[in-house]
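Hey, can you fold this?
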Amino acid sequence: GVHPSKISERDMFWLKLVLSSSTPSSHGFDTELWTLSIMKSLLFQRRSIDVSISTISRVLHRNNFSPRVPTRQAQEQDQEEVQQLSQGELEKRRSRSRHWRGGRFRG
């Protein structure tokens, strides 16, 4: 099928519904936190849309979704792994640790 490079209003409505009413694990992913990468995969699998991660981020921002840092409990689940990381690697991972939380709106 056709793989559009943009997210239509109808597809954005679908994505907002999915983000606000489910978790990635309910779609077969091994996590409870939404990431841009998971959204990209899901858009491709379910809607045959192949867009970049930056496009997804931009569209989410335009629709008042904002990234959230995972809760302390989620961050502590991998405490043993964190202790094994060098400080530099830990900082890199922290800077990438923003996850999109469905149903959280700004404004």
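Oh, and this one too while you're at it.
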Amino acid sequence: LISKINGLNTGNDTSLYDALYTAVTRTAARSGAKCVMAFTDGMDNNSSCSSQDVIDLAKRYQVPIFIIGLGTSNYSEIRQIASETGGLHPWRIFTRRSTERKRNSIW
């Protein structure tokens, strides 16, 4: 599985905001506690919707978005998404152990 994931090629098109919008929509339709966790490098260059669309939808359905940043990208746009939706700003992770610690702190 890991080698298949590592072998994926996105063609440099990233639709982060579309993915977050879809995740919030699906999460809002479920019962119980709700949140969206995104593992991302923070880049978006192919979405149909904007970061503000994501924020508005998440606020409407009260779904906080937690961002876990991968690598060293600039996270200013997704930091705004997290803070305005009640989630937490991007944590940067570099190892599997740090991933587990961040995930556990959200739960």
